Amino acid sequence: MRTAIYYSLMLLLGFAWYKFGQNLLRKRRWAENGERTEGLVGPVGLLVTAVVACYLLFEFLRALVRAEVPCVGKACRMQVYTLAANAGDYWANMFFLAWMVLGLSYAMYVTLKIWFRA
Fold this sequence. Notes:
Layout: H1 2-26, H2 43-66, E1 68-70, E2 80-82, H3 87-115
Antiparallel strand pairs: 1-2
């Protein structure tokens, strides 16, 4: 039951993140009070987000090739889940990595789309 709630909340969070980005993209370049519409992150935030997203993508691809993923979280430090021995925990961590890469990539997409509007 806890797993179903976890995945449902992750999907709900992803949907809310998507709707927030779409609302930003629908706004005009300049607001009615003369303020410019800002993206999700600033220039430094974009660089940090890009570095973190690339690292997580590397870890995701490495985990796919090696069929083992290190545990994500404080409770299970230095524990490695393998596909053969811990399939459920392996796929849960892979889902989390993929979800983070998608979320950060979407934040960069929305920010760049807002910055380079015509």
